[in-house]
């Protein structure tokens, strides 16, 4: 089985669950796969420059598709190409990278997988708790340790929690009918069910949702569920967030059947930047986004963003260069528009500024060590089990993942992956101190195992909330945030905005419905591309409508004020 506690462990059922809606049920995967293409601009618009702020997945994908249409994307990047797809290499160990940001991608991210295929990147199953690719899992709670290969190996209370979660999802979350409608891509059914859930639950926290359920009357069960959770592990750090965020993840199988990108996830934005763009218009064959940049490099950080009197934009970068554009796509986390970039208020309507100010980000930290070999596979003669297992615990590590690259090669341990408060607890500590802390926790779970003796390189760590160009790992809506979320997501439909607020597009996973998942970065990039294309007089072709063409039929439910 893929996961211990999930509504969607039937990832193999047909048709498969995909990240189709539920808020905006547009088939992004079919749109990009269509041989008709995603649209074109008129020749008069060829070579027009478009500023793309941010060189993460959303920015590089936006630039790639704009270049394909014959426009000239100009990518600005404040930190490094790849953004939160960040794969840290280890000197002398090619192919081994620590995924400091995104590391596992649900197969339900079908639009993302389209671009992985287009770039020729390979994926492999990710060793999540109790996943088929995971030799064994240890759950250690309140000092009590259990070894398991499947959910059946764990004590009854874990199955009880799984059962309670399924019951709660069905009774309060209509998960059965919603997932069935998503599988069938039955848009009216998705809209009907989801609109009802949004109305009922926009003001409900994840924890409040559990408390409403008779299945979770027991505090002990809620506590255990929070610590072990579903899919990828503990979810109690999400308890204060809106239950709609959780339902989106569960009902689109985002937390199931994960794969990692062989060689590192950063390759995807790097390839979108450097690979020749197939079917490119206006530019010579072989043109890449990179080759459209004078010195083959991204421009530096944007420091000022304003409007010209004539409806264009002034973009100033950290080198002091100032350029003027007709269109700007912004893909950084939206808080950047409030602090590190001096942004004119006129760039966005007031209601959108409110939504940006209210945006809520979760922090996340990871600590990795490189070890000499996957020693955890050695069988302990005393127990007959592997020496160490993928580990879920309520100790400081929370989730420990074991990543191998071949029996005779060095291997990686993600000693700890934490979110929100669990991540904040680590902020004062440097990499060495974090490693020591995690080894101490793991030492209690695996007494006698000399993990430190296998470590062959300095530990690497990262906390996204203290990074100047990010200020958080990913957005997580709080109760009552639906209206803000809708405002940011639908901003690409600019014919509904006053004329003086057009030409600036928001993209990136934090304006998507599924922040924290790369699919959201891809989908919002495609919205922005559609918006820019339309602004320059372009359009999609009959037979392959874009997100804006179908917007009125499938627009996200508009809650009253
Ligand atoms: C810890 C962590 C774990 C994750 N795990 C997963 C996972 O397992 N699966 C999954 O699908 N997704 C995961 N994600 C989410 C995934 O990484 C994101 O969805 C995706 O990388 C977002 O891409 P983006 O382009 O929208 O944003 P970003 O990657 O944040 O790109 C925005 C870029 O803008 C740049 N920028 C900021 N300010 C400026 C400025 N002033 N001028 C120019 N550039 C600027 C930033 O440096 C950054 O490179 C994870 C993220 C984190 C942090």
Question: What characteristics describe this protein?
Answer:
binds flavin-adenine dinucleotide; Guanine Nucleotide Dissociation Inhibitor, domain 1; seven-stranded mixed beta sheet; four-stranded parallel beta sheet; 3 domains; 16 helices; globular; Polyamine Oxidase, Chain A, domain 2; alpha+beta; single chain; 561 residues; 22 strands; FAD/NAD(P)-binding domain
Question: Would you give an account of this structure?
Answer:
The chain is an alpha+beta fold and 561 residues long. It has three domains: 6-20 and 157-257, Orthogonal Bundle (Guanine Nucleotide Dissociation Inhibitor, domain 1); 42-83 and 263-356 and 477-535, FAD/NAD(P)-binding domain; 123-154 and 364-472, Polyamine Oxidase, Chain A, domain 2 (Alpha-Beta Complex). 29% of the residues lie in helices and 16% in strands. It has helices at residues 28-33, 57-68, 110-118, 156-173, 175-184, 187-201, 206-212, 219-228, 243-251, 267-274, 350-358, 420-424, 431-445, 482-489, 518-535, 551-554, and strands at residues 49-53, 72-76, 87-89, 97-99, 105-106, 123-125, 137-141, 144-148, 258-261, 302-307, 313-317, 322-325, 328-330, 342-343, 361-362, 364-371, 390-393, 399-403, 411-419, 460-463, 474-475, 504-506. The strands form six sheets. The protein has a seven-stranded mixed β-sheet with strand order 8-7-17-18-19-16-20, sandwiched between helices. The longest helix is centred in the first third of the chain and has 18 residues, at 156-173. The model is unreliable at 1-11 (pLDDT under 50). Bound molecules: flavin-adenine dinucleotide. The site of flavin-adenine dinucleotide has 40 residues, from helix 2 and helix 15.
């Amino acid at each position: 089985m893929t996961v211990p506690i999930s509504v969607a462990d039937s990832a193999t059922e047909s048709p498969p669950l995909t990240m189709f809606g539920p808020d905006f049920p547009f088939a992004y995967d079919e749109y990009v796969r269509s041989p008709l293409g995603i649209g074109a601009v008129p020749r008069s618009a060829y070579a027009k420059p478009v500023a793309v702020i941010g060189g993460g997945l959303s920015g590089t994908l936006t630039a790639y598709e704009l270049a394909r249409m014959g426009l000239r994307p100009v990518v600005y990047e404040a930190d490094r190409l790849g953004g939160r797809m960040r794969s840290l290499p280890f000197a002398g160990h090619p192919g081994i990278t620590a995924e400091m940001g995104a590391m596992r991608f649900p197969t339900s991210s079908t639009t993302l997988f389209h671009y992985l295929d287009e770039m020729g990147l390979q994926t492999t199953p990710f060793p999540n708790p109790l996943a088929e690719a995971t030799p064994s899992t240890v759950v250690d709670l309140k000092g009590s340790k259990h070894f398991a290969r499947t959910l059946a190996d764990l004590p009854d209370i874990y199955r009880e929690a799984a059962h309670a979660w399924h019951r709660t999802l069905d009774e309060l979350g209509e998960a059965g009918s919603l997932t069935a409608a998503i599988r069938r891509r039955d848009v009216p059914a998705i809209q009907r069910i989801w609109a009802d859930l949004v109305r009922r639950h926009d003001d409900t926290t994840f924890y409040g949702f559990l408390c409403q359920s008779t299945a979770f009357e027991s505090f002990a069960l809620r506590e255990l569920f929070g610590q072990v959770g579903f899919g990828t592990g503990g979810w109690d750090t999400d308890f204060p967030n809106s239950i709609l965020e959780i339902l989106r993840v569960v009902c689109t199988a985002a937390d199931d059947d994960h794969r990692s990108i062989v060689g590192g996830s950063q390759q995807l934005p790097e390839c979108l930047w450097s690979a020749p763009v197939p079917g490119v218009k206006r530019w010579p064959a072989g043109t890449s986004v990179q080759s459209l940049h004078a010195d083959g490099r991204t421009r530096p950080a944007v420091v000022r963003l304003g409007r010209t009197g004539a409806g264009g934009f002034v973009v100033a970068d950290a080198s002091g260069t100032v350029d003027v554009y007709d269109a700007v796509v912004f893909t950084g986390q939206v808080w950047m528009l409030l602090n590190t970039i001096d942004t004119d208020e006129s760039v966005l309507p007031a209601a959108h500024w409110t939504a940006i100010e209210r945006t809520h980000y979760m922090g996340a930290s990871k600590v990795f060590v490189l070890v000499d070999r996957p020693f955890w596979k050695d069988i302990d003669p005393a127990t007959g089990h592997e020496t160490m297992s993928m580990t879920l615990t309520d100790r400081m590590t929370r989730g420990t993942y074991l990543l191998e690259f071949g029996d005779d090669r060095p291997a990686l341990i993600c000693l700890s992956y934490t979110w929100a408060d669990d991540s904040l607890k680590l902020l004062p500590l440097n990499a060495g101190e974090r490693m020591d802390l995690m080894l101490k926790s793991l030492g209690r779970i695996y007494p006698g195992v000399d993990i430190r003796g296998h470590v062959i390189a300095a530990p690497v760590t990262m906390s996204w909330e203290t990074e100047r160009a990010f200020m958080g790992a990913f957005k997580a809506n709080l109760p009552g945030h639906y209206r803000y979320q809708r405002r940011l997501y639908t901003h690409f439909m600019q014919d509904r905005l006053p004329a003086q607020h057009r030409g600036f597009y928001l993209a990136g996973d934090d304006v998507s419905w599924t922040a924290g998942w790369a699919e959201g970065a891809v989908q919002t990039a495609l919205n922005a591309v559609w918006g820019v294309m339309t602004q320059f007089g372009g359009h999609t072709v009959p037979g392959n409508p874009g997100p804006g063409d179908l917007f009125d039929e499938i627009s996200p439910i508009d809650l009253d004020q």
